[in-house]
UniProtKB/TrEMBL annotation:
<keyword id="KW-0010">Activator</keyword>
<dbReference type="Pfam" id="PF03466">
    <property type="entry name" value="LysR_substrate"/>
</dbReference>
<dbReference type="GO" id="GO:0003677">
    <property type="term" value="F:DNA binding"/>
</dbReference>
<keyword id="KW-0238">DNA-binding</keyword>
<dbReference type="GO" id="GO:0003700">
    <property type="term" value="F:DNA-binding transcription factor activity"/>
</dbReference>
<dbReference type="GO" id="GO:2000142">
    <property type="term" value="P:regulation of DNA-templated transcription initiation"/>
</dbReference>
<dbReference type="Pfam" id="PF00126">
    <property type="entry name" value="HTH_1"/>
</dbReference>
<dbReference type="InterPro" id="IPR005119">
    <property type="entry name" value="LysR_subst-bd"/>
</dbReference>
<keyword id="KW-0805">Transcription regulation</keyword>
<dbReference type="InterPro" id="IPR036390">
    <property type="entry name" value="WH_DNA-bd_sf"/>
</dbReference>
<dbReference type="InterPro" id="IPR036388">
    <property type="entry name" value="WH-like_DNA-bd_sf"/>
</dbReference>
<dbReference type="InterPro" id="IPR000847">
    <property type="entry name" value="LysR_HTH_N"/>
</dbReference>
<feature type="domain" description="HTH lysR-type">
    <location>
        <begin position="1"/>
        <end position="58"/>
    </location>
</feature>
<protein>
    <submittedName>
        <fullName>LysR family transcriptional regulator</fullName>
    </submittedName>
</protein>
<comment type="similarity">
    <text>Belongs to the LysR transcriptional regulatory family.</text>
</comment>
<keyword id="KW-0804">Transcription</keyword>
Amino acid sequence: MNTQQLEYLREAVRAGSFSRAADTLGLNQSVLSRQVAALEQEMGCPLLRRHGRGVIPTAAGERLLELAAGFLQQVAQIKAEGKAADRDLAGVFKLGVPMFFSQSIAPKLMASVQRQYPALTFVVREGHSGDLHDWLLAGELSAAVIYEPKRPRQLAGDLLFLEPVYVVGSRDLARRHGLDLDQGLTLEQLARLPLLIPTRRHGTRLDLDQAMKQLQLTPHIVHEVDALGARMLLVRDGVGVTIFESAGLLSERRDPHLFVVPIVAPPFFHKLMWVDGREQQAGAPWRAFTHAVKRDIVQLRAGLGDVDMPTTDPRLPRP
């Protein structure tokens, strides 16, 4: 027996039929009837009498609801107080995010937090992986979405999703190098192309260096540029190719002069983690808040497609 089954039974009695009760609860009628049947089986007696026009409670059903009324009222009060506490949650929460969040996820995330927690000041601070790492250790962030930490003993967290990394270049450069883009590019092919890449403050660079080293490849780096805008200007001029997270390539995918293809053989992904800061807020309301933010991030990223979600937190939704 659980609270939900008692609430379903109560609503069926109030409505006088499973169909009307299901409409009120926003459920499929079969789900409602199965839950009530399971409750009857556990109680060992019928709780409702079914007839052509609906249902009425049996004597046992009336007695059960009479005994459960006070309990259900207390549960409803606790739920209402919990929602009120969420809306009254106040203070400042500073979330660090990687660069690609700005255009693809951050705006909708901030709007969602504002709707759910209007009294809370929610600050999103963008930075490269090295910056986010340093800000977390310095206590300047409440939490961060960060590439898998290179020093895991200092920073540990929950895996949110695997972010694919793509190669971006001009179609003119692809023709000059005779690239077949139908199946993507291998790391070996990428190593032979003129590469525009961020410095080692950026998680993309660190992951690429490691992947190249494992395959004993030496990339042909022509420029190190952290600023994505500058890199993309060089890409459009045909100076070289760059790599970037899939979720950040919204406009580039629509540009007929550019190609955007995945890295294959082996596939190349970033691990995106949720890491709490050293001075994280304590208490159940804050834990509920951080869970809600993680849930929203997972759902927003899943909505963009082209991502894997092997989350380590079983409470987070699977897309």
